[in-house]
C-alpha cells in the first residue's frame, strides 16, 4: 500500500518537473542535444560579465548573477536579442544566484559557467600548474558546481580558459587540464542528479590549437566514458573582422581541421572589433550550411560595454542601460536565421566515438604527448567522496516580477516602454523573433515590441496546459490517498 509520505514525494517530484522552463542539454557525439526532444541545440549566445574580470570582487557580495533586478533587465534585453545561452566567467559560489538563474531559466536562456576566477589560488598557474593544483583549488571549483548543478539551465562548466596559450604552456599544462576535467566530472557524477558537461575554452593560437583539442578530446584506452576527456571544446576566435568571408577569416580552415571532431566545437568567444560598429556578418556563415555540420554555434563577446570596447549595451551607474548599434546589428543578423533548420538532428554526428589517446595525435614537437595525468591531490578524493563542507546549493525559485523597473534606451535614444521578460513554456529555449528593438521606436519617442518566444495565443495555450497538468496531478494525488 502506498504511504501518504511516498504519495507526497511523488507529487512534489511531478510539480518540480512542471516548474522547469527549459529541458536540460546533453552531449551526444559532436552535438549538443535537448535531453527530451532530442533536437540539436545550437548555441546562440553572448558573454556576460558586467564590470569585466577586473571588477570581480568576492568581498563585495556581488557577482554577475547575484542581483536579481539587474538580471531581470538584462534577461529582457537578451530575450529580445534572441540569444539562448550566456557565458559567465567569474562567480562567487558563496552567493545566492537563485533569482538570476531562475529569471534566465524562465526565458529559455542557458548558462555556460567558468569554474575558475582570476584571483590567486582559483585557477591553474600555466607557468607552474602543479603548484596550483591542490585541494584548496578543488574546493573552489567544486563550490561552483554545487552552486549551479541544480539549475536545469546550467548547460555546462568550463574547466579552463586559455590556460594553454603558447608553446611553453602547451608542454606542461595539458595533463593538469585533463586531471581537472576528471575531478569535476567525478564530483558531478557523485553529487549531481544529472550529468552536466565539462569542457575547455581555447585561445585561437593556430600552432597549438589542434593539439590542444586532440589532447583533451581523445579517450585513454579507447574508453569513451573516460572522465578526464572533455565533453565540449570552445574556441575564442576573432578572425572575422568587418566584411570578411568564409575563406579570408580562415573559417574554411577551422571547418576542415575540426571535421572529424567527436565533441561539440563552438566559438566560446567571437566578434572582432577592429571595424566599428560591428556588423556581425559572420553570423550567417557560422549558422549556415558551410559550418553547422561541424560547429555548434558561438557566444558573442560581450554583453556590456567595458574598456575593451566589445559591448552590445551600455550599463550606467544609476541602473539605466542604453543599447548600442552593435546590439541592433546583431539582432538583425540573428533574425535572419532558420532556427528550425539549426535544430535538425544529425544521426551521424551523435554516434561518433573518440579516438584512443596516443602520441601520434600530437603534431608539435613542443606539445605534451604523454597521457599519464596527475593523481588527485591530497584531500581531493575525500572532497569527491563526501562533498565539500557546507555547500551553497542553488535552486529554481518563482519569479514574481516580469516588468523591468529600470529605464532602458534604444540606440537612437528613445525609451523602451513596457520592457519585460516573457516566460516561455516548459519545453522551449529562447530564439530570435524577427523583430527589431531600436527600429520599433519609429518617431514616437518610445519603443515597443514583443520579446522572443511564443505569441500571446501560444502563451495562453501554455498556461492552459499547465492548469490541465496541475489538475491531473491533483487527480493522481486523490487516487493515491483513496488507496491508502
The main β sheet shows up as: 8 strands, parallel, barrel
Structural class: alpha/beta
State the separation between the terminal residues, measured CA to CA: 6 Å
Helix content: 25-40%
Strand order of the largest sheet: 4-5-6-7-8-9-10-11
Count of individual beta strands:
16
Rg over alpha carbons: 23 Å
Q: What coarse outline follows from CA principal-axis ratios?
A: globular
Total count of helical runs of at least 4 residues: 15
Strand content: 5-15%
Please give a structural write-up.
With 484 residues, the protein is α/β, with parallel strands linked by helices. Helix content is 32%, strand content 14%. The strands form 4 sheets. Strands 4-5-6-7-8-9-10-11 form an 8-stranded parallel barrel, surrounded by 4 helices. The protein has a 3-stranded antiparallel sheet with strand order 1-2-3, with no helix packed on it. A 3-stranded mixed sheet has the order 12-13-14. β10 (265-270), α10 (282-286) and β11 form a beta-alpha-beta unit. α2 packs parallel to α3 (98-106). The radius of gyration is 23 Å and the shape is globular. The model is unreliable at 1-18 and 441-478 (pLDDT under 50).
Helix and strand topology:
Layout: H1 4-19, E1 25-28, E2 31-34, E3 40-41, E4 43-47, H2 68-81, E5 85-88, H3 98-106, E6 110-114, H4 129-132, H5 135-148, E7 154-161, H6 167-172, H7 174-191, E8 198-203, H8 206-217, E9 232-237, H9 251-257, E10 265-270, H10 282-286, E11 295-300, E12 313-315, E13 321-323, H11 325-334, H12 339-342, H13 347-350, H14 380-386, E14 408-409, E15 415-416, E16 446-447, H15 456-482
Amino acid at each position: 500500500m502506498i504511504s501518504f509520505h511516498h504519495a507526497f514525494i511523488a507529487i512534489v517530484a511531478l510539480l518540480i518537473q512542471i516548474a522547469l522552463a527549459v529541458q536540460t542539454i546533453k552531449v551526444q557525439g559532436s552535438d549538443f542535444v535537448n535531453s527530451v526532444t532530442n533536437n540539436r541545440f545550437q548555441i546562440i549566445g553572448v558573454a556576460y560579465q558586467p564590470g569585466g574580470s577586473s571588477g570581480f570582487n568576492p568581498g563585495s557580495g556581488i557577482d554577475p548573477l547575484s542581483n536579481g533586478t539587474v538580471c531581470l533587465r538584462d534577461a529582457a534585453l537578451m530575450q529580445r536579442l534572441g540569444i539562448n545561452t550566456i557565458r559567465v566567467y567569474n562567480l562567487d559560489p558563496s552567493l545566492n544566484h537563485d533569482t538570476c538563474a531562475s529569471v534566465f531559466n524562465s526565458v529559455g536562456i542557458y548558462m555556460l559557467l567558468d569554474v575558475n576566477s582570476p584571483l590567486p589560488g582559483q585557477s591553474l598557474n600555466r607557468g607552474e600548474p602543479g603548484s596550483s593544483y591542490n585541494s584548496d583549488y578543488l574546493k573552489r571549483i567544486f563550490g561552483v558546481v554545487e552552486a549551479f548543478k541544480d539549475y536545469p539551465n546550467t548547460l555546462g562548466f568550463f574547466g579552463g580558459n586559455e590556460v594553454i596559450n603558447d608553446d611553453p604552456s602547451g608542454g606542461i599544462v595539458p595533463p593538469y587540464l585533463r586531471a581537472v576535467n576528471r575531478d569535476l566530472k567525478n564530483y558531478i557524477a557523485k553529487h549531481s542528479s544529472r550529468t552536466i558537461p565539462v569542457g575547455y575554452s581555447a585561445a585561437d593560437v593556430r600552432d597549438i590549437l589542434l593539439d590542444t583539442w586532440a589532447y583533451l578530446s581523445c579517450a585513454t584506452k579507447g574508453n569513451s566514458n573516460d572522465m578526464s576527456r572533455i565533453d565540449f571544446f570552445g574556441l575564442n576566435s576573432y578572425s572575422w573582422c568587418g566584411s570578411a568571408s568564409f575563406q579570408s577569416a580562415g573559417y574554411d580552415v577551422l571547418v576542415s581541421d575540426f571535421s572529424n571532431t567527436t565533441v561539440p566545437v563552438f566559438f566560446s568567444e567571437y566578434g572582432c572589433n577592429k571595424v566599428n560598429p560591428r556588423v556581425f556578418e559572420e553570423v550567417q556563415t557560422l549558422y549556415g550550411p558551410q559550418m553547422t555540420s561541424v560547429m555548434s554555434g558561438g557566444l558573442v563577446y560581450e554583453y556590456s560595454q567595458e574598456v575593451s570596447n566589445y559591448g552590445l549595451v551600455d550599463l550606467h551607474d544609476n541602473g539605466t542601460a542604453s543599447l548600442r548599434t552593435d546590439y541592433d546589428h546583431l539582432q538583425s543578423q540573428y533574425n535572419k536565421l532558420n532556427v528550425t533548420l539549426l535544430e535538425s538532428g544529425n544521426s551521424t554526428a551523435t554516434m561518433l566515438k573518440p579516438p584512443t589517446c596516443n602520441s601520434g595525435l600530437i603534431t608539435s614537437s613542443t606539445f605534451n604527448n604523454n597521457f599519464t595525468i596527475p593523481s588527485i591531490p591530497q584531500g581531493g578524493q575525500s572532497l569527491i567522496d563526501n562533498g565539500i563542507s557546507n555547500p551553497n546549493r542553488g535552486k529554481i525559485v518563482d519569479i514574481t516580477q516580469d516588468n523591468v523597473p529600470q529605464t532602458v534606451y534604444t540606440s537612437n535614444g528613445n525609451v523602451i516602454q513596457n520592457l519585460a521578460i516573457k516566460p516561455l513554456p516548459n519545453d522551449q529555449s529562447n530564439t530570435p523573433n524577427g523583430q527589431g528593438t531600436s527600429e520599433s521606436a519609429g518617431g514616437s519617442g518610445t519603443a515597443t515590441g514583443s520579446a522572443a518566444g511564443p505569441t500571446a495565443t501560444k502563451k495562453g495555450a501554455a498556461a492552459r496546459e499547465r492548469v490541465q497538468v496541475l489538475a491531473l496531478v491533483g487527480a493522481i494525488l486523490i487516487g493515491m490517498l483513496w488507496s491508502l
